[in-house]
Amino acid sequence: MTAPAKTDANGWPQMSRSAIPSSVRSLPFDQVANALTETRVNVSAAARSLGVPPGDLRRALAIVRPLLDLVVEIEEQRIDKAIGNLDAMLDSENGGLRKESSLFVLRSHRRAASRGFRQPDMEVNINADAREQHTIVTWGTGEVIAEWGKPPPLIEHDPDERARPDAERAAARTDADEERCPQGDLDPR
User: Fold this and answer.
1) pTM of the full predicted structure?
2) What angle do CA 75, 48, 30 make, to 5 degrees?
3) For the chain, does the N or the C end have fewer beta carbons within 10 angstroms?
């Protein structure tokens, strides 16, 4: 059993009293806790009801352990309520609700993945600062299958090709063009 924390006249823990914003510290601890509970941890609404700046209330939440514990407990109660609603939907007479809630459960739980209902979690990390490496993939015989990491070879072309008359373009055809399209009338250019 732990000893109760020492508190000041307003119920604030003494160990964090100096760091608590004065606008919040001037209020009784129980009043702040009640405002957070009533608003279901809507910090802006709680701050409005207390007449303090929301930023000050957020700072107090970050500093004062009993307030943080209260927030965690309220969130846990919310999750419990949501699970109860989901369970009720799973047992519903409405087939559409049963289907949607069933799909949600199957997509959300890790154990459903082992039964084939969900892809296992995967993490991808990309290091944008890493240098690209030259990589060669080969067969056991040494034959190159793939290669990446070096710039592609330059493709030589004439930037003014489109500006030349058709007769000049036809005369500038390469042997590769002839192999690909030996009959001039099939050439898409």
Assistant:
1) 0.50
2) 60
3) N
